[in-house]
Amino acid sequence: MELKENDIVIFKNEKRQEGTKQPEYTGKLNVNGETKDISLWVQESKTGKKYFSGKIKPEYKKQDEPPKTINKDINEQIDDDLPF
Fold it and tell me: Fewer CB atoms near the end CB (10 Å): N or C, the chain?
């Protein structure tokens, strides 16, 4: 999803487990062309009024896993050690 500058998108966290510190809502925002992640929790003031508290962090980007390679040198060493 591409956000235009100064846009915000927020979703209810459907995977949240009750009693955990996971945010109740998560989303993204774009400020000055930079995308950030948002986490929101519903809080209640001493007077009973509900409000959101939250955190803004740099956008999480999943890193690609390096491809699994077979080390030929190790295979050659194993073959050399076999007595037959």
Answer: C
